[in-house]
Amino acid sequence: MVCKDGEIHILHGKLLSYFFTSCYCSVRRKYLPVFSLIVSFIVGFVISGCSLKPESGTRSDFLERNFELAESLFVEGDYREAEKLLKINLSANRHHSKSHFLLGEIYRKKGTIISRRLSVVSLKQAIKENPDNPEYHYSLGLTYKKQGFSGNALRQFKKVVELDPQYVQAHRHIAGIYEEMGLRYDDRGYFNRSLEHAAMAASVRNNSQDYYDQAKILIQLNLFNRALTKADTALMLGPPDKLARQIYLIRGLCNVRLKAFRDASADFDSAMALMNRNALADFNDIQFIVSPTEYNDLRSLSSYQRRLKVARLWGELDPDPTTSENERKLEHYARQVYADLTFSIPEKQVRGKNTKRGEMLIRYGIPDEKRYFINDNLVLTWEWDYVIHGKTFTLQFEDTFHNGNFDFPYTATVVEKGDTLVDMSLVADRLVRAVAQKYDFKSDIPELNFAYMVKQFKGNHGKTDMEIFYNVPYSEITFRKDGDIAIGDFDIRAVVHDGNWSLLDSVSFSRVVKISSSQVDNMKLAVSHNFTLEAYPDSVYLSMAVANPHNGHIGRSKTIVGLRNFYVDKVAISELVLGRMARLPVDGMRISRKSIQFFTNLDNRYFVAEPVVVYFEFYNLKKDNDNRTHYRIKQIISRLEKPKLIGRLIGGYKTVEEVMTVYDGSGVLTYENRLLTLDLSSLKRGRYRITIDILDLVSNETASASEDIILYE
Fold first, then answer.
1. Residue 642 DSSP one-character state
2. CATH value at residue 453
3. Angle at CA 501, nearest 5°, toward 495 and 506?
4. Is the pLDDT reported for residue 86 higher than 80?
5. Taking residues 45-52, what's their average pLDDT?
6. DSSP string covering 575-604, please?
7. pLDDT tens sequence across 356-386
8. Are residues 422 and 492 in the same domain?
9. pTM assigned to the model
10. Is residue 492 located within the same domain as residue 511?
11. Which of 289, 472, 527, 708 has its CA 20 to 30 A from that of 383?
């Protein structure tokens, strides 16, 4: 090199540039820092000692070679050495946009507050030198997003898609920012803009993630059918397991909202099959179903006892145990998914279900009313109203630290409500301890009205038979007229569970009804019939549902039944079955409970002029030396009246008149039954008690059963 008049004439410039480049690439990695210092010293000396005016092509090659080396080091994660080379480039030519860009990338990767600021400076310079490069705007958008400046990031990403409408990642970030704004302010406008850009990303690249993103946004817009369509498309594209799990979860949420509980159950099962052990335990945790005290008690139990208690809890909360799906449990799953979609803070690794809003939503569902405002302390605030047992509870959440995590106001900044200062965390704690959860099983399908009663009899093998007598009004059945005959049908499901909610017995059948066409519109008539379920003596849960398959109307009922034990060593009598008529079996067939069709009045109200049919069974009769049983049946009809004054205050009835009839019988069986027809036409209207007493004449043991009826004219 020869310096003359302050100018540098570079001899064999290309050769020198290639020499440095080749040497730098060939030296072992452990000598790279030393070699880079030598290169920096030589180049710095030349530049500082003279004004650099090489041939344009020569200098450009040098800058490009240096940039390529820096880019390789950046990819390998050696940000320090890459930064040095880029600074050499910018010392040689401060207008080299690619060096500014890569330097901005390096600063952002470092992740500190200062480095992000330096990243913005470098990237702005890169854009100044080359304003039409979408990559530079995209990188600056990422840096702004890391800084938390969503508005600035949004502007850069919009510039990217303006320069390159096919830039998928920019569309995704725009969709994500609008989604965050929609979630923060509950604004449908932001959600719609987010959906627009998510759809654009999907149109450019057929990717499961983009369709999943659209489904998430559609859920926030309550467009669950459309969300299901997007989720189905995402699944068809073969997503990885982690994304597939999320897709199944939002499918389950959508199907719960659409009341497609069978599909929802299948979706959640598919999602849980893709969860690890910890995630599965967390998803099935009932912390936000019970009170804190109950939850602590539950954790103190053994794993076996805990499983039984949890199973019992879900069974008790199930609004329709006759189906294979537990609608309350599916709602719990759906609320968790919605909380995670709506309240999560990804940059802080906070799941939505673990926020205060997430907990309250999982416990009590979507608020009955909610309001968004900026309070007197200029803090963004949400107010949620829940109506529980007729009383309105207001919960308030503040974004105190402006980080998106809405929490209860601190005690020092309690909320003023009227003339009373209210500590929101205390209000929530008291509410949770008093009412741990809320769920209203609302169906868009009208309810079918029916009635039933349970009568207990001795069963087989130590069990007790529950004879279920039901009435379904003609008005609840869809009839098809065929001349003088009208034909209708309905479905019945019934199940019995024990105290641990294990299934004991079930029945499901369809009943076809034929009546006279003239009776179809008679509102007072009903179909009466019965069926049997059995279980061992204990307290059991009986659940029943009656459905009209033509209009979808369905009626549900759930009750606890304490079953009697008839397998005892003394005479016992079943409960009495009363009806206005009984259809007997064909001639020659022995009368039995299974062979008689009863037409029951479930409210036990009868006309004075009509007969009352009574059926009962009695068991465990003793035999004499001739191997025969001997017994006496007392039939007592008592007229009841409420006593005056003090008696009316303490309640109950007293017997004012009795009519008794006695029958004696004998047989070879220890079990007997009777079907009696009572003529009550001579009685006045009022309340009566029908009592059947059994006296075992061999053992002198007695048993009794009674039923109250009301006679009216």
1. P
2. 2.60.40.2550
3. 15
4. yes
5. 40
6. --EEESEEEPPPTTSPP-TTTPEEE--TT-
7. 999 999 999 999 999 988 888 888 899 999 9
8. no
9. 0.81
10. yes
11. 289
